[in-house]
Amino acid sequence: MRIVDSGPTIWDGSLSTPGHPATQASRGSRRTARGNRQSALLALSLLLAVASLWFALPVLADDYPSRPVRIIVPFGAGGPTDVFTRAVSEELRKSLGEPFVLENRPGAGTIIGSEAAAKSPPDGYTLLMVSATQTTTETLVPNKSFKLLRDFVPVGSLLTSELVMVVHPSVPVSNVKEFIALAKSKPGVLNYASSGVGSNYHMAGELFKNLTGTDIQHVPYKGSAGARNDIISGQVQMMFDSIPTMAQMIQAGRVKALGTTGKTRSPILPDVPTLSEAGVPGYEASMWIGVMAPAGTPQPIVERLNHAMNNILLRPDVRAAWERQGAEPMAMTPEQFGAHVGSEIDKWAKIIRANAIKSE
Q1: Do residues 266 and 333 both lie within one domain?
Q2: Are residues 261 and 250 in the same domain?
């Protein structure tokens, strides 16, 4: 047999013959080493990517906002939510250096505006004003395309405001207990007005009925103006309304105030007892306003907005100005505000189901 020598094969500095076990082992070692290097490079790349993202988050918050921020208000212009939002947006502009522009998107019981906000990019440049009304919509309209605590993240709260229970002067009562007795003596005869199904004023009336065991008919209006006109003219007997709106009418004797809906008496109506102390223990209903952002909005941006909002709310001049309008600043962390929204959804869901309330 003739053996042809093809010459030595150089491999990683060692001499070996092709096909020899030493050569195969050498090749396996090279593949293992190469795989280890690739794994190490991949791990390093991932580590650098995470680190760059981590360090970018504070930069993202520091640079925010770099252009105007849109605040969607799911109510018409001129209402309490709109008025207070405009005041806060101007202060946010001063604090953060960019305009906070209101966009009124009323309709369908706050659904139109809320839905538009839910579909917006989660970049901090679209915010949604949220009120107690939206927490009732969660139950009244279960098949809508969004959920408050699923499709939004809480940013912070702004204020809380009490309501006042008033009756027409022709109603022969002077306090809450007398009104309850009258309503029980005439089930289904007395009525109360509200600005619409699911509104704060409606829910306040339904809560009153549940806690007192009375049968009072609800008369919904398309807005507060018509309801107020009819309580003043005597077309309806009772109504829950905002304290600043009703204060002058109470002082003029055009309506009688029986009780307020907060935990403590209103500084605007200090002589009017709360409903809880007037004969309805545990009664509490309020209007409140807060801010949410589309789900996925970076947490540093949420924290920056919350910090700016709370700094505004803690100012003595802001507190004094709002208290003159019947509102109290309500500073909360995002987590506290989220818990508040959840508790309000649960509270009004029980009333809606117990009273078989349906959306219009």
Answers
A1: no
A2: yes
> What's the distance, CA 224 to chain centroid?
22
**pLDDT tens per residue, the chain (360 residues)?**
333 333 333 223 333 334 444 444 454 555 555 555 655 555 555 555 444 444 444 445 678 999 999 999 998 887 778 888 999 999 999 999 999 999 999 988 899 999 999 999 999 999 999 999 999 999 999 999 999 999 999 999 999 999 999 999 999 999 999 999 999 999 999 999 998 999 999 999 999 999 999 999 999 998 888 999 999 999 999 999 999 889 999 999 999 999 999 999 999 999 999 999 999 999 999 999 999 999 999 999 999 999 999 999 999 999 999 988 889 999 999 999 999 999 999 999 999 999 999 987
Give long-range contacts, CB 8 A cutoff, 24+ apart: 58-63: 58/300, 60/298, 60/300, 60/301, 61/298, 61/300, 61/301, 61/303, 61/304
- Phi/psi of residue 328, nearest 5 degrees: -120, 125
Distances from the Cα of 89 to the Cαs of 61, 127, 171, 294, in angstroms? 19, 11, 43, 18
* CATH number of the domain within which 306 lies: 3.40.190.150
Specify if 359 maps to a domain: no
Q: Are residues 126 and 264 in the same domain?
A: no
314: its two tokens: 């803690």
pTM (predicted TM-score): 0.79
Looking up tokens 């009244």 gives 140
Task: Report long-range pairs for 261-267 (Cβ below 8 Å, ≥24 apart).
Answer: 261/162, 261/163, 261/164, 261/165, 261/204, 261/285, 261/286, 262/160, 262/162, 262/286, 266/162, 266/164, 266/326, 267/323
Looking up residue 191, the CATH number of its domain turns out to be: 3.40.190.10
Task: Please give the Cα distance from 155 to 157 (Å, whole number).
Answer: 7
Task: Report the number of distinct structural domains present in the chain.
Answer: 3
* DSSP code at position 208: H
Domain enclosing residue 246, as ranges: 162-278
